[in-house]
Each structure stands twice: as C-alpha cells, then as structure tokens.
C-alpha cells in the first residue's frame, strides 16, 4: 500500500513499444459459438490519426470497436490500445479513453450541464501537466454546440441534441483515444458539419479517433485512413484516394473549350491537364478532375470480396466433389 | 502509485449524484406518485381496520398495523427499488456509461445507495407522519423509539439492498419484475404485517421468520407499540437479538454475493447489448 498524498497524480500507464502507435491490432479473432465474426483483423493507428471503419451490417465493426474499448473479450489475437491490452486495462488506462455511446433514454431527469459536470469529476485525479482533465464543462458544452440547451433536461433534447451530448460525454475526460460507433446518426447537415470540425480540431490536438459509419461521404471527409471490414476481415486499408486508385487508376477530366464540353479518361490526370493548358491556355473553362468516388470504391471492393468468397466456396466444393 | 484518490473522488461524485437524483424524485409526477400512492393505500387499509381489536388487548389493529407497514416499507423499497433501478439502468445504458468512465461503477453504486436510502427514509417519514396523526396509540415521544430506529433502519437496508441488487442483476428486462414482485407479496401476506403472526400455523410462521420482512415489522412494533403488546408476538418477546441476527445474516450474505453477481453482470454490458435491449423494448411498444 502506497502512502497517499493529495498532490499524488497518476503517472501514465505502460508505454507502448512505439510512442506513436496508439492502436495495434494483429490477427484479431472473435468467434461466437461456431460462427467466426472476426477472422484475423490487423491494423494500426498512430497518434492523432483518424480511422474510419466501414463495412456492411454484420461485418464485425461493432465487435471490433467493443474489443478495443475493453467491453468485450476476444477469442484470439494481439490487441493493444495506448500500449495496454484492453482485456486487462485498469482504471488509469480507462481514463485516457473516450467512448461515445449510442444513448437512448438514460439520465432523462438530469440536466445537460449537471450530467457533464458529474461525469467529468471522475477524471480530475487523472489530470496531468500535458492533459488537463476534465474538459471545463462550459467549454465542452460550447464545443459540441449545446450552450443554448445546457440547462435542459436530457428527456427534452431532440435526437440530434442527444447525440451531441453523447459526444460530449465521450470527450469530457479529454481522451487520448476516442471511439465512436456511428456518431452522426440523426444529425442534420449543419450539425454534421460542426461535428466534423470538432473531430478535425481534436485530431489536430493529437487525439486518435476510430469511428464506424455508414456515411461514406463522412468517412471521406473525416478519415486519414479508411478500413473496410467485410465478413470479419479487413479487405482494404488506406486513404480514400489510395483506395480509389486501387479500384481504377484512371481519373476523369472534364473541361469546356469554345463552348463545347469534353470528357477524357486518363491514368495521369495531372500530366493531361498540364498538356491541356499548354495547348489551349486561357481558353480552358470549367475544369474538373474526378477520381472514382469512395462510394464506387466501397461497392466494388465489398462486391469483389463477397463474390470472391462465393467463388472460393464453389472451388472448395468442386475440389471436394472432384 | 496510489489508487486511493481516484476511488475517493468516485465516492464523492457518487454522493453528489445520489443527492441530485433524490432531489429529482421530488420534482416529477411519476416519482411523487410513487411516494404518495403506497401510504394512501396503507392508510385506507388501516382506516377499515380502525374498529378491530387485537386479540382482546383493547388495542386497535390499525395502530398495530402502522409500524408493521413501516417495517415492510423499508424491506420493500430496499429490495424492489434497488432491483428495479438496476434493471432499468441496465436497459437504458446508464450502467454502461458508468462502466466507460474510470471508477464509474463505484460512483454508480454509491449514487444508487444514496438514492434508495433517501427514498426509503422519505417514504418512511410520509407514512409515519400521516399514520400517527390519524391513529392514536403509538409511543413516539419515548427516546428509545429513535434509538431502535437508529439501528433497525440501517441494518434493514443493508439486509435488503444487496439482495435487491442481486435480483436486479439476474432479471433480464423490466417486464420480468413480476417474478420477484409476486413472491414478495406472498411473503408480506404471511409476515404478520396486517395480522398478528401468532394466529398463523407454525410452519407458515417458520417460513416468514427466514425473511427480513417479518423481522423489520417486528422491530418497528417493538419501537413504537406499548410494551403490553408484546403478548401478541411469538414467544411473547420483541426478540431484538434475533431481529439483529437474522437481518445481519442477510446483510452478510448479500454483501458477499452482490459484488460477485454485479461484477459478472457489468462485465457483459456493451454498446451492442444495450442496443439489443433497445430494439426489444421498441418492439414491445408497437
């Protein structure tokens, strides 16, 4: 038993091998009964990186995120969050994590400011010189755009306002890693934009963010890297551009010249445009370069993967039958 | 490296939150109704009993029932409110929120202990004030009344709240609360709350004496009734030591089992388990 003094501040937990690797997941497997939900998921995230986890329903996104949060035990594989195995994470580790939950009707009688102040209090002992905890409650309420509703009861909030509160609860301890499972469901476009700005700001402050979403546009705007999970495996890992290039290296260049629209598909758009200008100069108008959209990429990758699996199954069957 | 300060912080946060939640129960219709409805029913029952006499003692059955229902109230709130709160908080994600913050479960438990204790005391005082102003015969001016209450109420809550927490952890959704409500009602029926227990057959008396309700009723009667009324009790005695012993035994069992069951229950909580319950609850509504 150590001697306690009021000035005692907890020291950070075990350091990761690499200071900058915040999430390290290798060959993560999860099996419920005879069903393999995750079959060897591998990825890493560095400090300040924003990762979007995409994938069809049932692909294992929520399972993955819950294992990382320490809410679910894995079947096999190596997982480290801030250098700690979530299965054995202590409260000091938990204090450096932010979890944005999909709330429903909890704390209906509490007022917004009251609840954030209460939940924030738990983080005060974990304040360090680098990270002051908790986030001052009025600043936090302003950051998520709830200032006008600070004294409302939770039961009086609209769906979108409640989601903002969920985000605030996830942020109140000034987490170093933030987990968000479908954070913007129920947001109107303005709220979505504000939320994206907040996430960019957090990532500038070196917060590592892992979010799941079905909104591909959102993933493209927010994420430094996109992971596509299908049938329990990561089938793609890279920036939106990298993924698009993988599907099709070609980009579409559109322009008008002399009142006429032109479209040209090319592998090297930059070079094509340079030549275009060299040839026509100022006469080029309405120039656009379009790569494959993330939506096209996503659809193609998921489809390829699914039909690939079907083919593999057919091959296996034929091998057995033959 | 010390872990004491975060724990103390969590306890303090829990105490504050418990007070906030107790205050919330005074400001909304549903909770006020829950406070007022049981005393009104009890008073009504006593009102119909006011002309009945307890076994030729010349003492009104209504006056004897009042302390018994006060004891029953403590047991009932301790058990049922704790269980119900746990079931609801698990269903709506309150518990998961607690789990997601450092030492949040400690804060949560302290907060609920404050809340349930506060609710029990408020209900107790409401019924005591209303009942004693309507029915004569209670000896409330004697200091020994308050001395008895000072140990009886805490041990009564200690005996019932952990068991309530265990039941609340086992029951999977709010709809199944009836599973513990029905046996509880039956226990109240045989525990000598509305009628002297000595008039029941021996085996029934035996069953009643296993559970806290009977002993809380007896304890309250010992505190508030004139000593002459002891003749209606088993063995013509207030049996303080036995009362303390049985309630303490329940408290010990509860305090050993509850942390194990609570921990197991909390470990299973995750975003998807709350989401699954939400799905189910929404389906029920339509």
How does this structure look, described?
The complex is a heterodimer of chains A (322) and B (286). Chain A has helices spanning 61-69, 91-94, 112-121, 137-143, 159-171, 189-204, 216-222, 240-247, 269-280, 294-321, and strands spanning 21-32, 35-46, 50-54, 76-81, 97-100, 177-181, 208-212, 225-230, 233-238, 251-257, 260-266, 284-290. Chain A has 322 residues and is an alpha/beta fold. Chain A has a domain at 245-321. In chain A, helix 8 crosses helix 10 (294-321). With 286 residues, chain B is an all-alpha fold. The radius of gyration of chain B is 20 Å and the shape is elongated. The termini of chain B are far apart. The model of chain B has no long low-confidence stretch (mean pLDDT 92). The interface between A and B is large, with 42 and 36 residues.
Largest interface (CB within 8 Å) is between: A-B, 42 and 36 residues
Strand order of the largest sheet of chain A: 5-6-7-3-8-9
Q: What do the pLDDT scores of chain A average to?
A: 88
Task: Report the sheet with the most strands of chain A, covering strand number, pairing sense and barrel closure.
Answer: 6 strands, mixed
Rg of chain B, rounded, reads 20 Å
For the secondary structure, the number of strands of chain A is: 12
**What proportion strand of chain A?**
25-35%
The average pLDDT value of chain B, as a whole number, equals: 92
Largest sheet of chain B: none
Overall, the morphology of chain A is globular
Output the number of helix runs of chain B. 11
Count of individual domains of chain B = 1
Topology:
The complex is a heterodimer of chains A (322) and B (286).
Chain A: E1 21-32, E2 35-46, E3 50-54, H1 61-69, E4 76-81, H2 91-94, E5 97-100, H3 112-121, H4 137-143, H5 159-171, E6 177-181, H6 189-204, E7 208-212, H7 216-222, E8 225-230, E9 233-238, H8 240-247, E10 251-257, E11 260-266, H9 269-280, E12 284-290, H10 294-321
Parallel strand pairs in A: 3-7, 3-8, 5-6, 6-7
Antiparallel strand pairs in A: 1-2, 1-4, 8-9, 10-11, 10-12
Chain B: H1 4-24, H2 29-49, H3 61-92, H4 94-99, H5 104-134, H6 143-170, H7 178-190, H8 202-208, H9 212-224, H10 240-267, H11 271-285
Helix pairs in contact in B: 1-5, 2-3, 2-5, 3-5, 3-6, 3-9, 6-9, 6-10, 9-10
């Amino acid at each position: 038993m150590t001697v306690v003094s009021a000035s005692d501040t907890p020291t950070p937990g075990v350091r990761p091998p690499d200071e900058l690797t915040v999430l390290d997941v290798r060959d993560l497997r999860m099996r419920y009964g005879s069903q393999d939900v995750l079959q060897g998921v591998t990825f890493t995230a560095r400090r300040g990186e924003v990762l979007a986890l995409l994938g069809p329903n049932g692909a294992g996104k929520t399972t993955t995120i819950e294992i990382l949060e320490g809410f679910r035990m894995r079947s096999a594989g190596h997982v480290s969050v801030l250098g700690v195995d979530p299965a054995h994470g202590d409260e000091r580790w938990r204090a450096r994590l932010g979890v944005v939950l999909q709330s429903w009707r909890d704390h209906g009688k509490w007022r917004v400011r009251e609840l954030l102040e209460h939940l924030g209090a738990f983080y005060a002992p974990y304040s360090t010189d680098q990270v002051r905890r908790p986030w001052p409650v009025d600043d936090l309420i302003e950051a998520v755009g709830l200032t006008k509703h600070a004294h409302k009861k939770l039961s009086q909030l609209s769906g979108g306002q409640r989601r903002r509160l969920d985000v605030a609860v996830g942020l109140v301890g000034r987490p170093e890693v933030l987990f968000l499972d479908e954070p913007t469901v129920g947001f109107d476009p303005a709220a979505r934009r504000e939320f994206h700005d907040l996430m960019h700001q957090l990532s500038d402050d070196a917060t590592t963010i892992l979010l799941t979403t079905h909104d591909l546009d959102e993933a493209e705007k927010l994420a430094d890297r996109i992971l596509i999970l299908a049938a329990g495996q990561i089938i793609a890992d890279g920036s939106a551009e990298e993924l698009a290039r993988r599907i099709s290296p070609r980009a579409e260049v559109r322009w008008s010249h002399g009142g006429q629209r032109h479209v040209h598909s090319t592998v090297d758009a930059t070079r094509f445009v340079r030549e275009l200008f060299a040839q026509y100069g100022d006469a080029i108008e309405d120039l656009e370069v379009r790569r494959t959209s993330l939506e096209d990429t996503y659809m193609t990758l998921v489809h390829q993967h699914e039909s690939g699996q079907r083919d593999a199954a057919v091959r296996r069957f034929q091998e057995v039958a033959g | 490296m010390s872990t004491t300060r975060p724990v103390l912080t969590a306890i303090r946060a829990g105490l504050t939150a418990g007070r906030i939640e107790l205050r919330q129960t005074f400001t909304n219709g549903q909770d006020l109704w829950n406070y007022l409805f049981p005393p009104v029913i009890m008073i009504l029952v006593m009102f119909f009993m006011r002309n009945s006499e307890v076994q030729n003692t010349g003492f009104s059955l209504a006056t004897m029932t009042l302390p018994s229902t006060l004891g029953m109230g403590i047991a009932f709130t301790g058990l049922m409110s704790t269980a119900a709160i746990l079931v609801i908080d698990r269903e709506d994600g309150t518990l998961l929120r607690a789990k997601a913050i450092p030492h949040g479960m400690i804060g949560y438990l302290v907060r609920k202990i404050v809340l349930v204790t506060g609710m029990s005391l408020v209900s107790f005082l409401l019924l005591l004030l209303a009942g004693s102003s309507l029915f004569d015969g209670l000896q409330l001016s004697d200091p020994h009344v308050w001395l008895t209450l000072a140990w009886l109420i805490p041990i009564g809550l200690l005996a019932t709240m952990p068991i309530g927490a265990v039941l609340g952890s086992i029951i999977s959704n709010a709809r199944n609360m009836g599973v513990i409500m029905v046996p509880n009602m039956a226990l109240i029926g045989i525990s000598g709350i509305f009628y002297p227990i000595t008039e029941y057959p021996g085996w029934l008396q035996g069953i009643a004496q296993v559970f806290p309700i009977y002993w809380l009723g007896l304890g309250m009667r010992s505190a508030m009734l004139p000593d002459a009324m002891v003749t209606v009790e088993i063995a013509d005695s207030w049996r303080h030591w036995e009362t303390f012993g049985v309630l303490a035994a329940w408290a010990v069992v509860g305090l050993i089992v509850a942390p194990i069951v609570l921990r197991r229950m909390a470990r299973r909580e995750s975003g998807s388990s709350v989401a699954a319950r939400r799905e189910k609850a929404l389906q029920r509504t339509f």
